[in-house]
Design brief:
about 550 residues; alpha/beta; FAD/NAD(P)-binding domain; Flavocytochrome C3, Chain A, domain 1; Methane Monooxygenase Hydroxylase, Chain G, domain 1; 3 domains; five-stranded mixed beta sheet; 14 helices; 20 strands; binds succinic acid
Length: about 550
């Protein structure tokens, strides 16, 4: 196998908002190599519709943003991390505006929307419902002008390089040539996003297969809070379409949920009705679907009017129209879909993982800001704030640590085992997505989780991957991430935030304020996962 050896000061794996913000900072300190599977737009950030929450409006302040974030996260978030998010957020947004980001305005002033669980109008948007793509555009334009930045698109992160207990690079697959590259680096930043694709229904793009999270696990990093997967209440439900996201902002602007008997039902579940936190709205929809024996409920925005909808939600309006739904005239069939991972690679306040030299930010990381349930529109802000924080810490780390002792090429391990065919890999991947959806989804039970875990363990044993094949590597990552979510969900014997156990439906129970941790002993022997419970700590 051809194997090129490269070296760089900083290796960034992933290219969403967190990665781009980090790259802009790191280019001031050395040479940066940024690798990402697919093209520059194949990331979750690019598809984010609703917006970016930031305490910048006249009626708002950072303390209120802090309180709403902690409350939505059911007090399980880290207070120092949340403080950093809300306090540094305004500067990151001003900076982005200086770099050319165009957020929507009304009468020349920034326009703020209210979304679920926000006590104030605080969500900025761009292009109506295309906030993520505008932020990625502005950051990419800024990054393109930096001479220290080397971009390697269509490169898939396969394995992290660990030497003397520290992370010093990665092996990446050139997807087009089918060859590997060994990239040595003083510090590595994982910004690979989440793993929504492990679920049969997800708002995430096909790329969201948890590659960074699984790679970090295999290298010995600690994953935290993996049981907390956020299900977005409203994605388009049509048998023939993928579950396209219908932004929370639709409800923020007055959208109403109705069950299949045409009844508005949210009042029975929360006084904030459609603007209750996401975990509550998603479970309410699920309950209504069970009650009325339907596969979906409806989102009614017809009263908002055609011209408003076309201008405020151009992407949503035109996408629904493509599926023959005129949202100004018809109710939209919707149901929940997997949307966001609150858990991920455990990091400190500066994006550092437990492995020296390995940093993480954005959805791949568990910085602690989201607790058990993310407040709507906090993730793009987290990408900006913690992308920069991780970059600053990585540059300090590289100055104070010595370079890797050897820089040899990675030698592919030959296996005599028979590889699974591509079709079998595809089949397993689909079965995995169905299993996670039915047994480790919005509503879980001890029994469903145990069954899922048993199946996942069997798959882990039988997975004989074709070497250097992206689908195979992704599937391996999906099985590993699925297993961590399932183990963590089984470990948490209470219901809190996005994690709901029907067999333990009482709200929190005793000793709920703890965090699951998942770590794999990094030996080349069969994987062993362990869950360590932190002492109950104040968060
Ligand atoms: C949405 O627009 O509802 C998604 C944005 C987010 O998840 O914060």
């Amino acid at each position: 196998m051809n194997n090129q050896v490269l070296s760089t000061d900083f290796l960034i794996i992933g290219a969403g908002v967190a990665g781009l913000r980090a790259a802009i900072e790191l280019c001031r300190h050395g040479e940066v190599t940024m690798v990402a599977k697919g093209g520059p737009q194949d990331n979750n950030s690019f598809y984010a519709q609703g917006g970016v929450a930031v305490a910048l409006s006249e009626e708002d302040d950072v303390d209120l943003h802090f309180t709403d974030t902690v409350k939505a996260g059911h007090q399980l978030g880290s207070r120092p991390a949340t403080k950093a998010l809300v306090e540094e957020g305004p500067s990151r947004i001003h900076e982005l505006i200086e770099w050319g980001a165009k957020f929507d305005t009304v009468d020349g002033q920034l326009a703020f929307t209210k979304e679920g669980a926000h006590s104030r109008h605080r969500v900025l948007r761009a292009g109506g419902d295309a906030t993520g793509s505008e932020m990625v555009r502005a950051l990419s334009t800024k990054a393109q002008g930096l001479k220290n930045l080397k971009w390697l698109g269509n490169h898939f992160g396969v394995e992290l390089l660990i030497q003397d207990g520290r992370c010093c690079g990665a092996i990446v697959l050139d997807e087009q040539k089918g060859t590997c590259k060994t990239i040595w680096a003083s510090a590595v930043l994982l910004v690979t996003g989440g793993a929504g694709q492990i679920y049969a229904r997800t708002t995430n793009p096909p790329n969201a297969t948890g590659d960074g999270i699984a790679m970090a696990l295999r290298a010995g990093a600690i994953l935290e809070d993996m049981e907390f997967v956020q299900f977005h209440p409203t994605s388009l439900y049509l048998p023939s379409s993928p579950p396209f996201l219908l932004s929370e902002a639709l409800r923020g602007e007055g959208g109403i949920l109705r069950n299949n008997r045409c009844e508005r039902f949210m009042k029975q579940y929360d006084q904030n009705q459609e603007l209750a936190p996401r975990d509550i709205v998603s479970r309410a929809i699920w309950a209504e679907m069970q009650k009325t024996k339907a596969r979906h409920v409806y989102l009614d925005v017809t009263h908002l009017g055609e011209s408003f909808l076309k201008e405020r939600f151009p992407t949503i309006y035109s996408t629904c129209l493509r599926y023959d739904i005129d949202i100004s005239e018809e109710w939209i069939p919707v149901s929940p879909s997997a949307h966001y991972f609150m858990g991920g690679v455990k990091t400190d306040l500066h994006g550092a993982s437990n492995l020296p030299g390995l940093f993480a930010a954005g959805e791949a990381a568990c910085s602690g800001v989201h607790g058990a349930n993310r407040l709507a529109s906090n993730s793009l802000l987290e990408g900006l704030v913690f992308g920069l924080r991780a970059a600053e810490a990585a540059s300090i780390f590289s100055k104070t640590s010595s370079p890797p002792s050897t820089m040899t090429p990675f030698i592919a391990r030959q296996s005599s085992a028979q590889h699974m065919s591509e079709q079998d890999v595809e089949k397993l991947r689909n079965s995995l997505r169905r299993l996670m959806w039915t047994k480790v989804g919005l509503i879980r039970t001890g029994e469903s989780l145990r069954k899922a875990l048993d199946q996942l363990q069997q798959w882990s044993r039988k997975l004989q991957l074709p070497p250097f094949n992206r689908t195979g590597l992704e599937t391996q990552n999906m099985v590993q991430v699925g297993r961590c979510v399932t183990e963590a969900a089984l470990w948490r014997t209470n219901s809190v935030g996005a994690h709901y156990r029907e067999d333990i439906p009482f709200f929190k129970g005793l000793k709920w304020k703890v965090h699951s941790q998942c770590q794999q002993i990094p030996v080349r022997a069969p994987a062993s996962h362990s869950h360590k419970t932190n002492k109950p700590r104040r968060t």
